[in-house]
Amino acid sequence: MSVILVIYATGEGQTATVAERIAAVFEDLGHDTSTMNINDRPADLALREYDAVLVGASIHAGQQQSAIVGFARSNRDVLSTRPTAFFQVSLASATEEGRAQAATYVEEFIEKTDWHPDRIGLFGGALRYSKYGFLKRLMMKQIAKRTMSDMPELETSGDVEFTDWNEVEAFAADVAAFVDGRLAVTSPTTNETETDE
C-alpha cells in the first residue's frame, strides 16, 4: 500500500472536488491517501513521508494559483524522487478547441517551476455563478458566451459543471497503476532535503 498526497489550489471549489474524487479512486485501489488544500498545509509538511504526490490547480485569468507554483518550484527536488502527477481544472479544457490553450497553461507552469510531473491531467471546470460577485458573474458570462457558445448548458442562469468524471477516474486509475509500477521497482529515499515557500 502506497501513501499518496493530493495537494491542490482551488478558486470556487471545483478543483477540490476533483482532488477528492481522485483520492477516492486511490482509496478504492488500496492506497492510503491524504488530500490537502495548499492554503491549509502545515508549516512542517514533509513530502518525503509520501510515496507519491499529486498537485492540482485551477486556472484563473490564464494562470494557476501562485501558492501552487511556489510549492512546486520550491519542492521540485523532492518531487523528482517520487512518482508525481499534475492535474489542472479550467474552462478551456471543457471544449476540444480550448484544450490546446489549456495545454499551454501547463507548459508555462512547467517552465516556471522546472518540475516535470510523470502524468498530467486536464479537466473541464465549472461556472459557479452562485459564488461570484456581480462583476465577476458578468465577466464570466461574457467569457463563456465567447468561448463556449455552442454548449446548450450555458442557456441556464445557474451553476454549470463541465468536468468529465469518467475522465477524472481514468486518470486516477492510470496514476495509481504508474505509482504501483514505479514503487515495485524502486522506493523513494528518505534523506532528501526539501523546502517550502
TrEMBL record:
Lineage: superkingdom: Archaea
UniProt cross-references to PROSITE patterns, sorted A to Z: FLAVODOXIN (PS00201), FLAVODOXIN_LIKE (PS50902)
Segments forming domain Flavodoxin-like: 4-170
GO molecular function, one term: menaquinone-dependent protoporphyrinogen oxidase activity
Keyword tRNA processing applies: no
Signal peptide: none
Record protein name field: Flavodoxin/nitric oxide synthase
InterPro entries: Flavodoxin/NO_synth, Flavodoxin_CS, Flavodoxin_dom, Flavoprotein-like_sf, Protoporphyrinogen_IX_DH
Keywords: Plasmid
Organism encoding this protein: Halopiger xanaduensis (strain DSM 18323 / JCM 14033 / SH-6)
Any GO BP: heme biosynthetic process
Pfam name, any one: Flavodoxin_5
